[in-house]
Recover the amino acids of this structure.
């Protein structure tokens, strides 16, 4: 399993607009092969900070996701609404054992 943590800082006064855009990503992303979980959250301490938490079966599923039309369109939809570039980290959780 692989986990993606993506964080973005929204420009002041734009968080509702960004949230509406991000909500359009939920249904199609969750329907993709290999998607285990796909959610986003607003920070408790900074309401202009948003974090995506995603779980994927494997890297091919992530690569498929990154190539979808809804993911490709997201950058243009968020243009001018974010304070800087989002950070995206991918973690390999398959090697982690839980006692």
């Amino acid at each position: 399993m692989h986990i993606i943590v993506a964080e973005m800082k929204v420009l002041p006064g734009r968080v509702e607009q960004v949230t509406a855009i991000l909500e359009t990503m939920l249904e199609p992303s969750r329907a993709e092969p290999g998607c285990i979980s796909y959610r986003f959250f607003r920070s408790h301490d900074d309401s202009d900070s948003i974090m995506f938490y995603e779980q994927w079966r494997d890297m091919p599923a992530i690569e498929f996701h990154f190539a979808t039309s809804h993911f490709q369109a997201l950058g243009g939809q968020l243009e001018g609404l974010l304070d800087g570039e989002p950070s995206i980290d991918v973690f390999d959780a398959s090697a982690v054992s839980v006692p």
